[in-house]
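Entry for zinc ion complex. Fields follow.
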Amino acid sequence: MKIAEFPEDLRPHLIPAPTGDMVYRCLECGAEFDITELLYTCPQCRGLFLLEDRAAARLAERPGAFWRRLFDYRRMLNLPALKGIFLYYELIAPVIPLDDIIYLGEGHTPQVAANEQLAAEVGAPFYFKNDGQNPSASFKDRGMAAALSYLNFLVRQPGAGRILAICASTGDTSASAALYAAYLGEKVASAVLLPHGKVTPQQLAQPLGSGAKVLEIPGVFDDCMKVVEALADNYQVALLNSKNPWRIRGQESYAYEIAQWFDYDLTKKAVVVPIGNAGNITAIMQGFLRLHDLNIIEQLPRILGVQSRHADPVFRYYAEADKSKRIFRPVAVQPSVAQAAMIGNPVSMPRVIRLAEEYTRRAGEQSVAVVQVTEQEIMDSMLLANRHGHIACTQGGESLAGLRAALQLKLLSRNEVPVLDATAHHLKFIGFQQMYFENSFPPEFEVTPKAEYQNRPQLLTPKTEAPEAKTADLAAQIAALLGLTPKTRFKR
Ligand SMILES: *Cc1c(COP(=O)(O)O)cnc(C)c1O
Ligand SMILES: [Zn+2]
């Protein structure tokens, strides 16, 4: 829609100019640091950062209704910079000039309702919000759009020099980082560090295809993380892991979109999200809290985190009912089909603890919960969902398995509407489906295929090679196999 056709009072606000005053705020000691420095942990105490807009009070001066109306109208504006996560520009990173924003089609992913059969089987109606429909096929693009847009702004400053963007990854972070860095071209070089043999061929193909330098080391994700942290401490590199608070800001858009989808009425709603490094659940909680701060929403939805038994440090932490006795202990992970969430020492755990406290203070003790599921439940749930028209990956299956566990534990009532995070596209993790169908899971996964969910291609051999007879024979074979009835001709 053309600017002149928008309501007159909104026109001056549709295309925002930078107004924020953002700083890195240390979660532990409270110190603030300039965002033009390449910092990822506090130089004083090594605490994690959150990005804070020191001028955020200006946003609260306007009523919630103003923001709701602005964001709803802005959807009709055809300006690429504001088409993706930056539709919510004022909430995400209002210091980045629009010219520096990179838009590759991220965000505004569909929220797809479970059909009647699936809802009946699970025991409640629900939605999948398909973040696999982002450009690199996972939710990581939301955060990278913010982090790389900021980097794009930074490298244009005089004397910035050429920056190396680096990340450790369970696969999807590197795919996303490499894609956005490739779009930036010469200005930013990119390298990714992966645990050898622990990412899927699809996830490995993505950064290779984007032209990133792909480095592998023995071990698991947590080992890669230590190496990139050592690099970020000692060299001029931009760390694109979820320590990077710009990514968290970008990922908040997931919460904003859910709110907008429900016309900002989040009464009796819940969001179910798999937890790995805990960046996503951090962003989702922070996003809803920010909407609540600005009176854009009145109700906070319930937040339900899900972990596999094979990588469950966050579940274990919250399993201790007595808050004063909770102690966070990293765990040694076991192989998991939810490979992107197979993390024993989540980087964002301090953020989660803090935000969950604030969240439960506002929305009640039961408003944040973490459930645990088995590898078997993850696989079965993924296949069940996809047999009903979804494109859930194993982590999306983990969300559904978590919903089922929560219903059973009565952590969620049947009149609440859950939105399940389908964090990546099914095709990225296709090898696990293959293992299920072929019954070839190594024993440590503890997955036994159920015949009802298995599916295999069936090869038909023609009984003759004569071209026309061959076609007829194959058609007859298929008709017999599928029990087709012969075409009846109606007389007029
Ligand atoms: C990264 C990732 C996760 C885990 O998210 P965190 O922010 O690390 O908790 C889950 N699913 C997929 C597909 C991912 O790529
Ligand atoms: Zn500090």
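NOTE: The mean pLDDT is 95.
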